[in-house]
Specification:
Radius of gyration: 19 Å
Number of strands: 0
Number of helices: 15
Shape: globular
Largest sheet: none
């Protein structure tokens, strides 16, 4: 066993209580993310948990689920908190684990800040029918920026990491948008681009859009874009050592099954339940894990 492998097996240099606190944030969220990260070494898994915990906290603030009276102010406070973290100053368990992850994997502050900027886009008045440029910027901030942090932890070669994050982040976020149209409408949000809404005569109103005749056409085009980004991401992953993109492959496989289910269901009634073929999902995940 090499010294580097032994070091990763020991995990980040943090107090066990701090690592446990961050893991609890992941587990209590109810996400399957924790299970998916089991394929990583303890050190990389703990760093990914810290990234997820950060994203979970700022996302809850943006969605108004954190109890903060002024969500935008609470998000903006995170800029100062990040600045302190990058100076090695920590105020709680998450900060301390983030400091360790940043130092070990050379994570960039601008990517954390981009995530917060994305959450602020949601927070400063709901996003309703953004133009194409704004939608792409949003996808970059809330998804691809997380990808740029993640690929450094995964060990993806730097020359491929950023472009992989670009495509896979957009593929995942477009899939989220297509899946959550009715849920977003209940929050007063509509992420579908204005140009496509106008083209298919869909009103730029979150609730009215859900039942517009042209919604199917809008969503089919966005689904095709997501597929394009998945294909581009797959081409990049084929150029990388398998172990450095395995988590990304698993995320792509899981979301592609969701996208396929969405296309099968259609968007004539976006509130209709989504039927995921569990066997198909397991097969896709197994293939992704094998790197075939």
């Amino acid at each position: 066993m090499s010294p580097g492998y032994k070091k990763e097996a020991l995990g980040l240099v943090c107090a066990p209580a701090d690592l446990a606190h961050v893991e609890d944030i992941v587990i209590s969220s109810g996400t399957s993310f924790g299970k998916g990260m089991r394929i990583l070494s303890p050190m990389r898994r703990q760093a990914m948990f810290a990234i997820y915990a950060f994203c979970r906290i700022v996302d809850d603030i943006a969605d108004g689920d954190s109890g903060d009276k002024n969500p935008a102010q609470a998000l903006e406070a995170w800029f100062g908190r990040l600045e302190a973290i990058y100076q090695g100053k920590a105020s709680d368990a998450l900060d301390r684990v983030l400091v360790a992850a940043i130092e070990r994997f050379h994570l960039k502050e601008k990517d954390f800040r981009a995530v917060i900027d994305g959450m602020l886009m949601d927070c400063r008045g709901p996003i309703i029918a953004p133009d194409e440029v704004t939608l792409d910027l949003y996808c970059d901030r809330v998804a691809s920026a997380v990808g740029r942090l993640s690929v450094r932890i995964f060990g993806t070669p730097q020359k491929y990491g950023e472009i992989l994050s670009h495509h896979l982040g957009r593929a995942l976020q477009l899939t989220n948008i297509l899946r959550d149209i009715s849920e977003d409408a209940r929050r007063g949000r509509l992420y579908l681009p204005k140009e496509l809404l106008d083209r298919f005569d869909v009103p730029a109103d979150p609730f009215e859009a859900c039942y517009a005749q042209g919604l199917e056409g809008v969503c089919q085009i966005l689904a095709a874009r997501a597929h394009d980004h998945f294909r581009a991401a797959e081409m990049i992953m084929k150029k990388c050592p398998a172990h450095t993109v395995r988590p990304a492959r698993l995320m792509a496989a899981s979301y592609k099954v969701t996208l396929s289910a969405l296309e099968k269901r259609g968007w004539r009634n976006p509130e209709a339940s989504l039927k995921i073929n569990k066997l198909k999902k397991k097969v896709h995940l197994a293939i992704a894990f094998a790197g075939i």
